[in-house]
Amino acid sequence: MTTTGGSRPHAGPEEVAPRPSRRVVLGVSGGIAAYKACELLRRFTESGHDVTVVPTAAALEFVGAPTWAALSGKPVSTEVWDGVHEVPHVRIGQSADLVVVAPATADLLARAAHGLADDLLTSTLLTARCPVVLAPAMHTEMWEHPATRANVETLRSRGVVVVEPAEGRLTGADTGKGRLPEPGEIFALATDVLARSTAGAPLQDLAGLAVVVSAGGTREYLDPVRFIGNRSSGLQGLALARAASARGASVTLVAANVSLPDPAGVKVVRVETTAQLRDAVVEASSAADAVVMAAAPADFRPAEHSATKIKKSEDGSSPTLHLEQNPDILAGLAADRPHPGIVVVGFAAETGDAQGTVLEHARAKLARKGCDLLVVNDVSGGAVFGAQDNEAVLLGQDGSAVPVARGSKSALAHAIWDRVVALRALG
């Protein structure tokens, strides 16, 4: 990483100051999903954050105060009257770097939206001047009720990050939207928000926008058990979806054969083949403000698909495989845009060869595809696939080439969204 504004001698490992812990308030309201907050608390504490748990009285009916105290290493209270001399109903919120409430019930959302301060948690929300992330969990009917929807819109208009709940099994036999996202995904989104806040970056600059992200690699089936595929893990696409959600966008993730947890707050559409990927992306893009094609579609598919498993021959000969080209999803989307103003971003996994360098191949691809931005990965030797970090060059139609140094896939995701925001500003 390059810094400006002066230089200093290189410090050895013994001279590096420890990273200061960030003060996180974990609010827990009274829903059955309160038990999942224990895992979220563990992730925060094990990553070095200083966590204060503030449960509601109802939350303690599901998980007792001794559990929260043991996991956080701090005493736990729900009352504004405990430790009155320290003014906890003001001080906790004032000193926080991040407030996360998981689960956030319909009642908690209503009280927060209307500025009530009738317990320690709602008082903390009213005094906090740091980013606030609310992760709702409730029955589908409660989530879809006009009163809840209005409360969510009110909170979002004030800059609160209200995570869309997941779809799945609720209490009893009920299934639908309203499930608390997985604690690991809430943690990833919350720490993303905290990192951007610490860096002074805009927190909700994608608010009000609808974006589509594709991720993973498609499969083209030879027979019921065999397919042609590629090594894309979907990690970069999920990082893009998570980052957009943290920045306030309404996100649809079209996931091709991705075996990773769904990012918190993201609508996920699952596909297998390139044709399915194209159809899902085209449908989701009809009302989107930006599309980022991070998936790796198979370029070819078998000309014929066997309805039964292809057997080995007795004489040891191999079958001949005839391939046909798949449609170019990115080029088609860029050429036939659903509406003016949509920003289209593509990815290019390239290697250099005798005909040109990675960037030379990528510039030619940008011209062919017609997208607004091309994210170029040098995948020589299998780099990038399945790795937790990434580096890239962002090529623009204006001739710009912006390198993004090796770092987390989340960092690259934010660099891409920064460029999308800039492109939208240019009209």
Automatic annotation (TrEMBL):
Q: Which organism is it from?
A: Nocardioides scoriae
MF terms from GO for this chain are: FMN binding; metal ion binding; phosphopantothenate--cysteine ligase activity; phosphopantothenoylcysteine decarboxylase activity
* Reported function: Catalyzes two steps in the biosynthesis of coenzyme A. In the first step cysteine is conjugated to 4'-phosphopantothenate to form 4-phosphopantothenoylcysteine, in the latter compound is decarboxylated to form 4'-phosphopantotheine. Catalyzes two sequential steps in the biosynthesis of coenzyme A. In the first step cysteine is conjugated to 4'-phosphopantothenate to form 4-phosphopantothenoylcysteine. In the second step the latter compound is decarboxylated to form 4'-phosphopantotheine.
Q: Does the keyword Metal-binding apply?
A: yes
- Tell me which UniProt keywords the record has, alphabetically: Decarboxylase, Flavoprotein, FMN, Ligase, Lyase, Magnesium, Metal-binding, Multifunctional enzyme
For region Disordered, the annotated ranges are 1-20
Q: Where is the region Phosphopantothenoylcysteine decarboxylase?
A: 1-210
Q: Which family does it belong to?
A: In the N-terminal section; belongs to the HFCD (homo-oligomeric flavin containing Cys decarboxylase) superfamily.
Name this protein carries in UniProt:
Coenzyme A biosynthesis bifunctional protein CoaBC
Positions of the UniProt region annotated as Phosphopantothenate--cysteine ligase:
211-427
Reaction(s) catalysed by this chain's protein: (R)-4'-phosphopantothenate + L-cysteine + CTP = N-[(R)-4-phosphopantothenoyl]-L-cysteine + CMP + diphosphate + H(+); N-[(R)-4-phosphopantothenoyl]-L-cysteine + H(+) = (R)-4'-phosphopantetheine + CO2
Instruction: Please name the pathway.
Output: Cofactor biosynthesis; coenzyme A biosynthesis; CoA from (R)-pantothenate: step 2/5; Cofactor biosynthesis; coenzyme A biosynthesis; CoA from (R)-pantothenate: step 3/5
Q: Which residues bind CTP?
A: 299, 309, 327-330, 347, 365, 369
- Which EC numbers does the record give? 4.1.1.36, 6.3.2.5
What sequence ranges are listed for the domain DNA/pantothenate metabolism flavoprotein C-terminal? 206-422
Give the note describing cofactor binding and stoichiometry: Binds 1 FMN per subunit.
Which GO CC terms are listed, alphabetically? phosphopantothenoylcysteine decarboxylase complex
UniProt xrefs under PANTHER family? HOMO-OLIGOMERIC FLAVIN CONTAINING CYS DECARBOXYLASE FAMILY, PHOSPHOPANTOTHENOYLCYSTEINE DECARBOXYLASE
